[in-house]
Structures are given as structure tokens and as C-alpha cells.
TrEMBL record:
<comment type="similarity">
    <text>Belongs to the peptidase M20A family.</text>
</comment>
<dbReference type="InterPro" id="IPR047177">
    <property type="entry name" value="Pept_M20A"/>
</dbReference>
<keyword id="KW-0732">Signal</keyword>
<dbReference type="Pfam" id="PF01546">
    <property type="entry name" value="Peptidase_M20"/>
</dbReference>
<protein>
    <submittedName>
        <fullName>M20/M25/M40 family metallo-hydrolase</fullName>
    </submittedName>
</protein>
<dbReference type="InterPro" id="IPR011650">
    <property type="entry name" value="Peptidase_M20_dimer"/>
</dbReference>
<keyword id="KW-0479">Metal-binding</keyword>
<keyword id="KW-0862">Zinc</keyword>
<feature type="domain" description="Peptidase M20 dimerisation">
    <location>
        <begin position="216"/>
        <end position="360"/>
    </location>
</feature>
<dbReference type="InterPro" id="IPR036264">
    <property type="entry name" value="Bact_exopeptidase_dim_dom"/>
</dbReference>
<feature type="signal peptide">
    <location>
        <begin position="1"/>
        <end position="22"/>
    </location>
</feature>
<keyword id="KW-0645">Protease</keyword>
<keyword id="KW-0378">Hydrolase</keyword>
<dbReference type="Pfam" id="PF07687">
    <property type="entry name" value="M20_dimer"/>
</dbReference>
<dbReference type="InterPro" id="IPR002933">
    <property type="entry name" value="Peptidase_M20"/>
</dbReference>
Length: 468
């Protein structure tokens, strides 16, 4: 493939080539810094374990902020085991106002160079993309949000409420620093979580199709099911067989569906998504589900589609299985892992009790083996100030594209803020084609068309949300 080193001017040309109506203003210095800093961050191998360079990413960001006018005393890098987190504060003029927090993470998932077409920790600009581990998840976006704030300060903006950059160091693993940051910032007014691309570009034209903000997450939980028997010789079968009993339990759980549910975020999602859905049958199912969440025909359609089944209700699926100790012996133990994504508003104890009832097997013992890596969190409210600011910012950056609220089936730092009562919204500036989604996978990339409109987006969001 032909390697192309893009100039700042060519980035602007690519932005116009997307077909967006907005034609955002150029910020040559900020645009150059975004690309430079993103490349420097990607080059640091911020992966859990020996040699973790997340603290160096934090130091890189700290020095850039000091260079841009932040006081060293307003920037805190806190070491934690092999990683670290960063909190940098731009103090507002009204100390009575709660701060606006910009959240992202500096760590990335492991990447084996032998499997990649390019070294994952050597940033490469090629054919309009920045390649490298963390390009889309989420070093590029963390830099874009930071450099936009630097540009805002350079322009002389005076925030009324403080703006806080809060970047965690282990979001991809234990989320221990995510939890620590949320506890420190539990007095915040609102969190903008910029983790990952929020918008979708057309595969055919490259034009923006729609932009999504995330206002809720399902909770990740793992339950273990264990059945034990005395065992014995396989030539003398007994009525109770641990593997058979566990198989019966798994068959019941596999066939079970939880009660369908709606909240403000998912109701808005289905309503807006139905307007964009090209398949009339699916569009009707979305509308009918909003009108009646128990509509059997609508549920049949939505639960048959992997793209929508997780949005309907809590889901629980068997993901791991182990049993027996010898080929010629009756099993003494059989275990299985059940992975659940729990709809907001339910406790892990409640869902485990429901599964026990479904199992209908007294010999099957259930236990919660999730640990401290996940927490229950309510949905963030549909705040008019955030919704209005987001619509204004997206329109300025990308033109009048449809905006859709969403609930994620995955997990991000937002859940820790929501758990302590702080509204958090997944709302990054960037757009991406579905075919360019390689986060956690091989040859991760991000399109550089995002730089100029991204700066426009963040400038608008910061101004609106930090001015009142």
C-alpha cells in the first residue's frame, strides 16, 4: 500500500471531501498538534503488566498542558500499581459551580506485532488514516479533546465552571483507576466521556449518516453455576449426574428471555432509529415496541437480530463450561459461566435469583464471580442542556445529521460516575465507517477527517456547558 504523509492542509481537504455541510473553521496549529500528540501517545505501549507505559502517556499529556498554560499544581498524576491516572483542572471563575469533566482512558488492550500488518505501537499515517493500537480506542480522541481545550484557552475563553480532564489508566482491564477518579470527582455537574467514535459515516459516500450519544450502559455480570456429585465408576451410572444436571440448567437458561424494558434513553433510541431503518419490517417492530414493549411480533423481530437483541432487555448466556475429571468416571463436578448484561435498574442479586428460579435445580449452586470490575449504575437523565449543546456542536462540526440517544451493552468509565450520582454521556466528536471499526482488533485505525470538525465540536461543547 502507498504511504502518504498528510499535511495539515490536506486534512482540511479530506474533511470537505466527506460531503459534510458544515465546512468547519480551520485551526492549523491545533490540527497539527492533534496528529503529533496522537502519534506520540500511540507509540507508548500502555498495556497492563510489565513495561506498562500508561504513566508515560500521562506525563506526555501533562507536559503538553503545562506548555499550553496549565499550572503544574493544577495537574495530578497518581500512580496505581503498574499504571496511573491523570486529572488536570482549568479553574472556572465561579467556584460555586460544579465542574465539567472530560473523561477518556490512556491504556489500550494488548496487541501482538506478529499478527498486525504494521507494528501496533509504531504510528503510521497511510491513505488518510492513523494506524496503531489506541487510534480509535481511544488515544486519538483523548488528544483531540485535550487539544481542543488548549485551543479554547488560547482563544481567551474564560469558563464559569471548571473544566477537568480526567483520564484513567486501566479502563480496558480492572477499571480500578476509573473507580478512584469517579470517587474523587463525585461533585461534578456532568461528564463528557469521549471514549470511541460516536458517529457513523456512509460506506459509499463517506458522508455522515447519524451521530449517537450514549446515556446508559447495561451492567456486566458473571455468575458461576456448579453442580457436584459423589462420582463413581462410569460402569455404574446413577440417577444424579453432574454434567447431565448442569446441561438441563443451561438449556433452560438458554431458552429464557427476560422481561422487555424501556427507559427514557432506549425509548428515544427506538423512536429515532425507526426513522432511519431501511427495512420496513424492522422499522415497524421498533415503533411497535415503543408503543407496547410486550408486543410479541415486535419482540420476535428485534430479538432475532444480533444488532438489536441486547437493547430489548437483560440478556444472560452461557459462555464457558467445564466438567468431569476422567473419561471412565462419573463426574464429581460440572461448572459453567453465565455472562449477563443487565438492564439498568436491576441488582445483580435480583438477576441471580431469577436465574435460580429458571434453573429449577436445587443441586445447582449459583455464585457471583464478577469481582470489583463492574458496578450497577442508573441511566443518565435526558438533560436538556446536554442534548441542546450536543445538537449544536454536531451540527457545527458535521452538518444537520440525525442524532440518536443510545444505551450500550458494553462497559466504560461512565458507569462509575453514574454509580456515584454524576450524569455521564458518551459523546465523542469523531465519525467512523462501520468497516473501519477495529478497536481491540488488528490494524486499528481512525480517519483523519475527524480532526478539523472534532475541534469545532469540542469548542462548541465546552463553551456551552462551561458557561452556565
Amino acid at each position: 500500500m502507498r504511504h502518504i504523509l498528510l499535511t495539515v492542509a490536506s486534512l482540511g481537504a479530506m474533511a470537505l471531501a466527506t460531503g459534510a455541510e458544515a465546512a468547519p473553521k480551520a485551526y492549523p496549529d491545533a490540527e497539527a498538534h492533534v496528529l503529533d500528540m496522537a502519534k506520540k501517545a500511540i507509540a507508548l505501549r500502555s498495556v497492563e503488566g510489565e513495561g506498562n507505559q500508561t504513566p508515560q502517556v500521562a506525563e506526555l499529556f501533562k507536559q503538553r498542558l503545562i506548555e499550553a498554560g496549565w499550572s503544574a499544581s493544577d495537574i495530578e498524576i497518581v500512580p496505581y500499581k503498574d499504571t496511573a491516572y491523570l486529572i488536570a483542572t482549568w479553574k472556572g471563575s465561579d467556584p460555586s459551580l460544579k465542574p465539567l469533566v472530560v473523561s477518556a482512558h490512556m491504556d489500550v488492550v494488548e496487541a501482538k506485532p506478529a499478527d498486525w500488518q504494521r507494528d501496533p505501537f509504531t504510528p503510521v499515517v497511510e491513505n488518510g488514516y492513523l494506524f496503531g493500537r489506541g487510534a480509535s480506542d481511544t488515544k486519538f480522541e483523548a488528544v483531540l479533546a485535550m487539544e481542543s481545550m488548549i485551543q479554547l484557552r488560547k482563544e481567551g475563553f474564560k469558563p464559569k465552571r471548571s473544566l477537568v480532564i480526567a483520564y484513567s489508566g486501566d479502563e480496558e482491564t480492572s477499571m480500578a483507576t476509573s473507580k478512584l477518579i469517579a470517587e474523587k470527582l463525585k461533585n461534578a455537574e456532568l461528564v463528557l466521556n469521549v471514549d470511541g467514535a460516536s458517529g457513523t459515516l456512509s460506506e459509499e459516500t463517506g458522508k455522515p449518516l447519524y451521530w449517537t450519544w450514549q446515556g446508559a450502559e447495561k451492567t456486566y455480570i458473571d455468575y458461576q453455576i456448579e453442580v457436584t456429585n459423589p462420582g463413581g465408576h462410569s460402569s455404574a451410572p446413577r440417577p444424579d449426574n453432574a454434567i447431565v444436571q448442569l446441561s438441563e440448567v443451561l438449556a433452560r437458561i438458554g431458552a429464557y428471555t427476560f422481561k422487555p424494558e424501556l427507559n427514557d434513553v432506549t425509548r428515544a433510541y427506538w423512536t429515532e432509529a425507526a426513522k432511519l431503518e431501511a427495512d420496513p419490517r424492522k422499522a415497524k417492530a421498533m415503533r411497535d415496541f415503543v408503543a407496547n414493549p410486550n408486543d410479541p411480533a415486535a419482540l420476535a423481530v428485534l430479538r432475532a437480530d444480533p444488532a438489536t437483541v441486547g437493547r430489548v432487555s437483560t440478556t444472560c448466556v452461557p459462555t464457558m463450561l467445564s466438567g468431569g475429571h476422567a473419561r471412565n468416571a462419573l463426574p464429581q463436578r460440572a461448572t459453567a459461566n453465565i455472562n449477563c448484561r443487565i438492564f439498568p435498574g436491576h441488582t445483580r442479586e435480583e438477576i441471580m435469583a431469577e436465574l435460580e428460579k429458571v434453573a429449577a435445580m436445587p443441586a445447582a449452586r449459583f455464585s457471583d464471580v464478577t469481582g470489583d470490575d463492574s458496578t450497577m449504575a442508573p441511566a443518565s437523565p435526558m438533560r436538556p442542556d446536554f442534548v441542546a449543546a450536543a445538537r449544536k456542536a454536531v451540527t457545527a462540526a458535521w452538518g444537520p445529521v440525525p442524532i440518536i440517544p443510545a444505551q450500550s451493552s458494553g462497559a466504560s468509565d461512565s458507569m462509575w460516575y453514574r454509580a456515584v450520582g454524576v450524569p455521564s454521556y458518551g459523546a465523542s466528536a469523531s465519525m467512523m465507517k462501520d468497516s473501519d471499526e477495529f478497536a481491540h482488533g488488528l490494524n486499528e485505525r481512525v480517519s483523519l477527517v475527524n480532526i478539523r470538525p472534532g475541534i469545532t465540536y469540542y469548542l462548541s461543547m465546552y463553551k456551552d456547558l462551561a458557561s452556565k
